[in-house]
Specification:
single chain; 431 residues; alpha/beta; seven-stranded mixed beta sheet; 33% helix; binds zinc ion
Amino acid sequence: MLKKFSCALLLIVSSAFASQGQQSPVTVIRAGKLIDVDAGRALPNQTIVIRNGKIEAIGENLAIPAGATIIDLSKMAVLPGLIDCHTHLADGAHEGNSDPTFQLRRTASQVVLESIPNARITLESGFTTVRDVGVYRALNDVALRDAINKGYVVGPRMFVAGAYITITGGAGAMTGFAPDITLPWDLRYGEANSPWEVRQKVRQLAHDGVDHIKVLSTGAVLTHGSNPNSSEFTLEELQAAVSEAANFGLRVEAHAHAPLGIKNAIRAGVASIEHATLIDDEGIALAKERGTYLDMDIYDEECIQEAGRQGNMPTDFLEHDRSLGEAQRQRFTKALRAGVKLSFGTDAGVCPYDVAARQFAFMVKYGMTPMQAIQSATSNAADLLGKSDLLGSLKPGKYADIIAVTGDPLADIHVLEHVSFVMKEGKIYKQ
Ligand SMILES: [Zn+2]
């Protein structure tokens, strides 16, 4: 009955548009100031015409199509939707608990349901797209991505990894148990210990429908029994990952803290190094030469230390982290000065999801201009995803992923911490 009624309604609505000679509804945004990230400048008084979820036209004094819905952002600064290139949205509710073994007190479906607010909060903070780079319960991220795409759940457009490809007992493994404990399949889905095992995992994940591949090249801070200074996958294993991923048209990102693991991953041809905490001068030169992105999460140290003060961070994690925070920030400045490509990635999940935008101010504090910081989360991030044709700037033909803030982000980058308007693919989620 209900279905019949809505079909009838749909017919009336479409005939109304047909009578006006239009195929679909049009939305027009009046933007007081528009941040053109491609040109690196702000444009006054722009009009954005949106149809079918995409930007149809953009410019000054454009004619407003008849029947258009007009959104007045003439007192605001309008930007492309932000992109966080390093998130973990599908690991459930952390509730102040930074020990990954909390995953074992939940079923996989509980974890994915708990992740629903993570997705909504991320979108409402202005991030219309995320590159989600790993999940403990394998494929929970695929489920969340698909639920968002089907409209069951509100969240950003997700590009997902499906699982961590890691050595046994390595940075991406669920560790800290006695050797005779056997974990369920989804907590050890990505374990691989030779080039051919790495290829097998990449093939499996490609079949599972992932968007990119995450490998762990060195030890980690937030993993029991791991050492951020150690190398994990060999050069041969990393090369196998990149080569096999390329067979499926997928890019690879590598978690790496220590210099050798960073350089092995760059030499293997990964698209980005995650964290890049202790990158040395040779690594910076290699990244520049190869065009490898560094995705440096320079804010989350604040959250790790705060969790430590609250007693919510395992002491071995705090020991791993000692001195790494400031070291990473200094190397961020070095890489920036050397002209290495930098993307915006926060490791959201370490910090609460609603504070990811605080990293912008840290990027400016450590040397970026506000425009460079914004580009890292828009045009650069879209380039890293290989989606510059659809994402990362406000141009005709791209998705209408649009946010607005009060104030001028080029004068005060902190205004990005309070996004007041969010549109994803032409649909408004916050106003
Ligand atoms: Zn991470």
